[in-house]
Amino acid sequence: MEQIGEDVIGSRVSGFVSCFGNPIDERGAPGGRCLYYRERGDETYWRFCARDGRIVSAAGSLPRPG
């Protein structure tokens, strides 16, 4: 699992979604929301956890969510 740029931390969720321009699959997570983004044509997922509308953590190259 590799971390992505710190610049995304603290970003508003709405801005993040429009930045990538792709559908985000939202799944529940303890203490906040986790957003899973699938790269087009790939099975790589990025996970973004958000609280109060802002990204609080981000990780990439995760297994495909069940």
The oligomeric state of the chains shown is: single chain
Mean pLDDT: 57
CATH topology: Beta-lactamase Inhibitory Protein, Chain:B, domain 1
Strand order of the largest sheet: 1-2-3-4
Low-confidence stretches: 1-5, 18-26, 28-32
Portion of residues in helices? 10-25%
Give the biggest sheet: 4 strands, antiparallel
- Provide a count of the helices: 1
Order of helices and strands: HEEEE
Shape: elongated
C-alpha end-to-end distance? 17 Å
CATH class: Alpha Beta
In the CATH hierarchy, what is the architecture at level 2? 2-Layer Sandwich
Structural class: mainly beta
Taken as a percent bin, the fraction of beta residues is 35-45%
Count of distinct strands: 4
What gyration radius follows from the Cα positions, in whole Å?
Answer: 11 Å
The number of domains: 1
Structure explained in plain terms:
- By secondary structure, this protein is mostly beta strands.
- It has a single domain (6-62), classed as Beta-lactamase Inhibitory Protein, Chain:B, domain 1, CATH 3.30.1450.
- 12% of the residues lie in helices and 42% in strands.
- The protein is built from one helix and four strands.
- Strands 1-2-3-4 form a four-stranded antiparallel β-sheet, with no helix packed on it.
- A hairpin with a 6-residue loop joins strand 2 and strand 3 (45-51).
- The longest helix has 8 residues, at 13-20.
- The two termini are 17 Å apart.
- Residues 1-5, 18-26 and 28-32 have low confidence and may be disordered.
